[in-house]
Amino acid sequence: MRIAAPFRVALLLTAALAVGSPAQAWWPFDGGQGSRPRPPPRAASPTPQSFPNIGYADWTEQEPDYRLYPGDQIDITVPSAPELSKTAVIVQPDGRVTMPLIAPVMAADRTIPELQEILSRAYESQLLRPQVSVTMKQATPLKVFVGGEVTTPGVYDMPGDINSLQAVIQAGGFRTSAKTDRVVIIRRGPNGQAMMRTVNLQSAMKTPSGADFVPLRRFDVVYVPRSNIAEAGLFMQQWFRDVSPIQGFSYAIGGQTQ
What is the CA radius of gyration of the chain? Predict the structure, then answer.
């Protein structure tokens, strides 16, 4: 059956209006009594909250209290019940120590006085006015993290007191791409917040007398950044080899085709 031209045009206009602006288009199937029902308004998306800049604490040479670490050995003495005392108690990999009559107690990342107080409270249900004494027997080796532009980045056990240059040497020394005048040292501060400073090892190597090599502490991070020249070389490599749409392009640096 053929539809008359005027009626066909009217149908096309109605469909076009309905598709073009569905929120305001007249809805022809409700008896002509109103507009198309609108869906309930969507709830406004929550505005994403920007995280505050987490800065580093001011650098201080204040020596914080020693905190226990897995592998440390401690002596635990209970004067009111000597049979409960133990020597050479090892802080386990999960950070806990095990003592008689009480559940394992978390020792890692606690100072000696903090652990003494925790053990004393744990024994309150077993003893009358317990006073637990904890002494360090043997600490695990000093560990520092050396990363960035060194030959062998990693975690290193350091023999005794060392400084940042000695840590870099332990990691195989600087790469040719290293920025030796802006070596970064990151350390945990007295309140637990990270501290950061830089050291010019390039100048210190040229004039060792009186240079500040920064003596390291346990878990310090020594990071050697990439030099500006190395950053430029990396950019060239990424652009011409990985990003550039021109395949087979070659360029020369120092007479060598890359």
Answer: 35
The pLDDT value recorded for residue 25 is: 38
Q: What is the DSSP string of 166-189?
A: HHHHHTT-B-TTB-TTSEEEEEE-
pLDDT score recorded for residue 172 = 94
Token match 């080899």: residue?
A: 241
Q: Output the pTM of the full model.
A: 0.58
User: How many Cα atoms sit within 13 Å of 151 on the Cβ side?
Assistant: 8
Q: How far is CA 209 from CA 199, 205, 206, 216, in A?
A: 15, 9, 9, 18
Nearest Cα residue to 196 out of 53, 55, 67, 66: 55
Residue 136, token pair as written in the block: 């360090």
The domains found in the chain, sorted by start residue, are: 73-138 (3.30.1950.10), 142-229 (3.10.560.10)
Give the phi and the psi of residue 158 in degrees, each rounded to 5.
-105, 130
pLDDT in tens, 164-182: 999 999 999 999 999 999 9
Q: Which residues contact 172 (CB under 8 A, 6 or more apart)?
A: 150, 151, 152
Q: In three state form, how does the secondary structure of 234-257 look?
A: HHHHHHHHHHCCCCCCCCEECCEE
Pairwise CA distance, residues 69 & 71, whole Å:
6
Q: How far apart are CA 200 and CA 44, in angstroms?
A: 52
